[in-house]
Design brief:
By secondary structure, this protein is an alpha/beta fold. The chain has helices spanning about 1-15, 25-30, 35-45, 50-55, 60-75, 105-115, 120-130, 130-150, 165-180, 205-210, 245-250, 255-260, 295-315, 315-325, 340-360, 365-370; strands at about 190-200, 215, 220-230, 235-240, 265-270, 280.
Length: about 375
């Protein structure tokens, strides 16, 4: 409620005095004294209000401070890129000076709130009290630093398992099926795989438009492939792929046999009928795969097996839905002129979600399979 009230007050005051201006005055931003988040966060931390802090930044206070402790030295030491997008150049066409106009704490606030809220550029400026150029450069630099950190700390890792952890995941799946259906499954299913579609800005090049047009969403899109493990974390992914590709084609880039090569052959991933057969992927049968030679008993047994597989496979859709609802930046369109930055945003959100699940014990998939 603190954020909502302060935000409404700031927006009303700004548009009441400056209705004719299309951009935000730097002098007005200086009067905000660092923005609403700069005022709210110290008060929330002093009160120990984890729920409010989680609603603002998606991390509780302890997790935020532990991430800030490793983020600050990397943020202050890493070299700022001159420009990442064509509209981030100075008036002379060259990159802006290499200087940090935000502290590490404020940069982390800006980045986490942008990912969590998915608000517009102007709204983010008002919430944080920074100019547009500062916001753009801070976001790009912070995303790069956060990815560098989360790729190397255990909380944000997306590596595919040890044998002991895979055995635990298979036990979680068996217990879930035994409680829900009363069946005993012999296989070792450790996760589920599914595709995700994200909107992309319309590219300027005609060939690039055709490549990124997705017929299912009737829009230009970026596709990805995600492996959702039963402990609520993501095990592997392919992100920011062309929108024209089918899920079964993307699996050629995410080779399950290669990703799971260190695990015994009985460990598999559950998928839907969009994927082909593989030694590491098990999926339910589609209706056309039932033959007339099958007896009623065989069809009944196969139907029960497919129902069990579908109940496990649907966990990947739960995970993708939780990721989209947690980080509302997925409701915005990914940039068409900076493919690398779009992929970094996608990967960063998944690694932050892994950090949330491991440190805060949250998420729908984790809550369903933990017992």
């Amino acid at each position: 409620m603190y954020l909502v009230n302060l935000y409404i007050l700031i927006v009303e005051r700004y548009y009441k005095k400056r209705r004719k201006k299309s951009n935000i005055s730097p002098n007005y931003l200086r009067k905000l004294n660092g923005g609403a988040l700069h005022i709210i966060q110290p008060f929330v931390i002093a009160e120990g209000d984890d729920d409010t802090h989680r609603s603002l930044f998606r991390l509780d206070i302890a997790t935020y401070h532990s991430l800030l402790a490793v983020f600050e030295p990397v943020y202050n030491r890493a070299r700022l890129a001159r420009f990442r997008r064509i509209n981030d150049r100075g008036a002379s066409g060259y990159g802006r000076p290499h200087r940090r106009l935000c502290s590490a704490n404020k940069a982390l606030q800006i980045t986490l709130r942008k990912l969590a809220g998915g608000s517009s550029h102007i709204d983010t400026q008002l919430l944080n009290g920074v100019e547009g150029s500062v916001l753009s450069r801070t976001l790009h630099h912070s995303v790069t630093c956060l990815l560098q950190i989360l790729r190397h700390i255990p909380g944000g890792s997306m590596d595919m398992l040890t044998v002991a952890r895979a055995r635990k995941l298979a036990t979680m799946a068996r217990n879930y099926i035994a409680v829900r259906y009363g069946y005993e499954i012999a296989g070792c299913i450790i996760g589920a795989i599914d595709g995700k579609i994200g909107d992309r800005e319309r590219p300027g090049d005609d060939a690039w438009q055709q490549t990124n047009y997705n017929g299912k969403s009737n829009a230009h899109a970026a596709k990805g492939l995600v492996i959702q493990l039963f402990d609520g974390t993501y095990g592997a992914s392919v992100v920011n792929f062309i929108g024209l590709a089918h899920d079964s084609k993307i699996t050629t880039w995410l080779d399950l046999c290669d990703v799971m090569s260190h695990l015994p052959p009985e460990y598999v991933i559950a998928g839907d009928t969009a994927f082909g057969t593989s030694s590491r992927l098990i999926r339910p049968l589609s209706m056309v795969e039932y033959t007339r030679e099958m007896t009623i008993e065989q069809i009944s047994l196969l139907s029960d097996c497919c129902k069990v597989l579908s109940s496990l496979r649907i966990s990947s859709e739960w995970g993708i839905g939780a990721l989209t609802n947690t980080f509302r930046i997925f409701q915005e369109k990914l940039p068409a002129d900076d493919i690398i930055y779009g992929g970094e945003l996608w990967e960063l959100c998944m690694r932050l979600y892994n950090l949330m699940v491991r440190n805060m014990r949250t998420g729908q998939v984790y809550n369903v399979f933990k017992d």
